[in-house]
């Protein structure tokens, strides 16, 4: 019998997908359940090798479907829940906010109810630094766990709402929870609507890369496998009720990121096309990860080693992203950017 049963929601997406593979390999004595609705952002081809493993299971379900989720939890009696499932793209939240509230807020509440009623012993809610809002360009300012929540986009507002529900289920019902708030991830299986994989895939096809505004906005980048290790640590060692920020001090302007990719691939910088800025575009994110470091975590990738590994992965795995950028993605791209 498996030592622990763990439910990973959103395990067909980018970070959840990497986390599922990380856990199946690291803990052969755990039973790892991947629950996912398989929206446009979810795909199971990334797990084709896992199908051979006897500690991996897939469940297709909507986290906001109360009846299905309650029944599943009552039947399976999970020990742990690690909750990634969400609508995750800021631009999509600007054009269509409603599904963000349904999935990110209502879906989280359904999972909290099911976890409480079935006796889950740890619920890790995977959140984002975007709930803190934005920082100015003073390099000595950082988000800490005490920074007030001040989300600016419909996406980050929906994530902040779910964070507050998770906190409330701990305070009210004593549900054993942790909340992690990570900076921007990058790495294998990153969906090419997001800046880094969008740039790599378009530059490889000699297509223009849309950079919002003047390209000076700053993000703090973390390799997805360092994020997975952080969540694993919080799951097993996190103090109940606590929030942990996750980040590796890798601040870069968007223009620096795009130019690094273009130069690594030996392509011309005139592929950059400055386009209309994102509405409410947050200026800068930067994480102070001291609390998590004190728990025993430190990142293994610098931005330089991580981006080199990631670019190589996209070169070696065209089969994965080429299937994704064909079809419906083309319609999304034209609607979003109005460029070919
Ligand atoms: P993603 O968009 O790549 O994957 C989301 C997954 O959730 C997909 O597989 C999708 O099918 C699934 N999903 C969506 N709605 C669902 C529903 N109603 N029921 C069940 N499954 C559903 O997202 P990601 O970038 O991997 O982000 C995962 C989590 O991490 C999110 O909660 C996000 O807020 C958080 N996060 C992301 C980043 C980042 O840089 N990408 C950073 C910090 C935190
Ligand atoms: O900070 C964590 C967050 O990082 C996560 O919570 C989100 O789920 C994740 O999508 C990401 O949000 P961002 O909005 O920061 O990521 P995105 O890749 O969309 O954009 C990164 C930066 O690049 C941002 O400043 C906007 C800019 N950008 C993005 C796109 C898609 C462009 O200039 N051009 C683009 O085409």
Describe the structure.
This protein has 340 residues and is α/β, with parallel strands linked by helices. It has one domain (4-186, 222-250, 280-302, 329-337): Rossmann fold (3-Layer(aba) Sandwich). The chain has twelve helices and twelve strands. The protein has helices at residues 14-26, 66-76, 90-95, 98-118, 154-173, 195-204, 224-237, 254-264, 290-295, 303-316, 318-325, 328-337, and strands spanning 4-9, 30-36, 56-60, 80-83, 122-128, 177-182, 184-186, 209-212, 218-223, 243-246, 251-253, 272-275. It has a seven-stranded parallel β-sheet with strand order 3-2-1-4-5-6-10, sandwiched between helices. A three-stranded mixed β-sheet has the order 7-9-11. A two-stranded parallel sheet has the order 8-12. α5 (154-173) links the parallel β5 (122-128) and β6 (177-182). The longest helix is centred in the first third of the chain and has 21 residues, at 98-118. It is globular. Bound molecules: nicotinamide-adenine-dinucleotide (NAD) and 2'deoxy-thymidine-5'-diphospho-alpha-D-glucose.
């Amino acid at each position: 019998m498996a030592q622990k049963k763990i439910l990973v929601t959103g395990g067909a997406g980018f970070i959840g997908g990497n986390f599922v593979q990380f856990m199946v390999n690291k803990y052969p004595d755990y039973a790892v359940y991947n629950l996912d609705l398989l929206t446009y952002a979810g795909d199971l081809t990334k797990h084709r090798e896992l199908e051979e493993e006897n500690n991996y299971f897939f469940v297709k379900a909507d986290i906001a479907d109360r009846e299905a989720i309650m029944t599943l939890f009552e039947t399976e009696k999970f020990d742990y829940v690690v909750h990634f499932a969400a609508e995750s793209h800021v631009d999509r939240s600007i054009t269509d906010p409603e599904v963000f509230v349904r999935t990110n807020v209502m879906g989280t509440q359904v999972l909290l109810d099911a976890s409480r009623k079935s006796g889950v012993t740890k619920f890790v809610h995977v959140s984002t630094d975007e709930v803190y809002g934005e920082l100015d360009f003073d390099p000595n300012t950082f988000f800490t766990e005490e920074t007030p929540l001040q989300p600016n986009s419909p996406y980050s507002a929906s994530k902040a709402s779910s964070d507050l529900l998770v906190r409330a289920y701990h305070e009210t019902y004593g549900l054993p929870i942790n909340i992690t708030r990570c900076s921007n991830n990058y790495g294998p299986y990153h969906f090419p609507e997001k800046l880094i994989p969008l740039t790599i895939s378009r530059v490889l096809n000699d297509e223009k890369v849309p950079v919002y505004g003047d390209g000076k906005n700053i993000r703090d980048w973390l390799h997805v496998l360092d994020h997975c290790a952080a969540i694993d640590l919080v799951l097993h060692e996190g103090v109940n009720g606590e929030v942990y920020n996750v980040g590796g001090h890798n601040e870069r302007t968007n223009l620096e990121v795009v130019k690094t990719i273009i130069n690594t691939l030996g392509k011309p910088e005139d592929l950059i096309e400055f386009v209309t800025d994102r509405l409410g575009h947050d200026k800068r994110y930067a994480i102070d990860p001291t609390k998590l470091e004190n728990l025993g975590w430190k990142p293994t990738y610098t931005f330089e080693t991580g981006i080199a590994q990631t670019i190589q992965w996209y070169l070696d795995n065209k089969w994965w992203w080429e299937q994704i950028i064909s079809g419906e993605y083309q319609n999304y791209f034209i609607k979003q950017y109005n460029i070919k």
